[in-house]
Amino acid sequence: MDLYEVMRTTAAVRDFTDDPLPDVVLGTILENARFAPSGGNRQGVQIVVVRDPAVRERLVELTEPGARRYHAERAAGETPWSGHDRSRVTEQEVARTVVPGWVTEPVRRAAVVLVVCVDLRAVAALDKELDRVGLVAGASVYPLVWNILLAARNEGFGGTITTMAVAEEPALKELLGVPEPFAVAAVVPLGRPVHQVTRLRRVPVAQMTHREHWSGGPLGG
Predict the structure, then answer these.
(1) How far, in Å, CA of 116 to CA of 111, rounded?
(2) 214 partner at 20 to 30 Å CA-CA among 15, 86, 111, 168?
(3) Residue 9: pLDDT band by 50, 70, 90 thresholds?
(4) Is the peptide bond before 181 cis (omega within 30 degrees of 0)?
(5) For the residues 64-85, what does the mean pLDDT come to?
(6) What is the largest CA-CA distance in the chain?
(7) Cα distance between residue 151 and residue 23, in whole Å
(8) Which is nearest to 141 in space by CA: 170, 117, 114?
(9) Does pTM surpass 0.85?
């Protein structure tokens, strides 16, 4: 496929057919995705490939607490799990919230689930001393995760980046035997899409660019 077509049609896929994703195809996806950049080219990513239904069911259980809080905050009109604002949602409201099936079913229904981890010794977290949620360390892992989805699209498969289970990281690491000092960055279900999206909606370039200064006009404006 043309590179730009892949970039413009790689959607978040959560509804999968029963088609398998053979190891040979998954190997091709990862073989190409591994060329993603990482901080200092230290390549600290490790991936646990999960097919076992029992392990996946436990992944679903670990997904639910974070998802429950997410949807409780969303129902209250908040930005879920905001990295900036403190939530006003009570624990009782969280406990009453039902997790939609579309949140957990991809983990059950996907042909394979990838749990992407990163060695914290290999990342450069230049913002770790700032008084805000850290972001920069993700540059050493998320380009590879996105490359996995781009490569999957090229092979006729798809998936989505999920992070709900990371809220339960200690239990998740225990489940999969992930050692210290690795952190879990994403849980990525992959499979054959029931429907392949060909048009995505995104904000235009003019709404996301600033010339020279935040107060400057947009690119193309």
Answers:
(1) 16
(2) 86
(3) very high
(4) yes
(5) 97
(6) 54
(7) 14
(8) 117
(9) yes
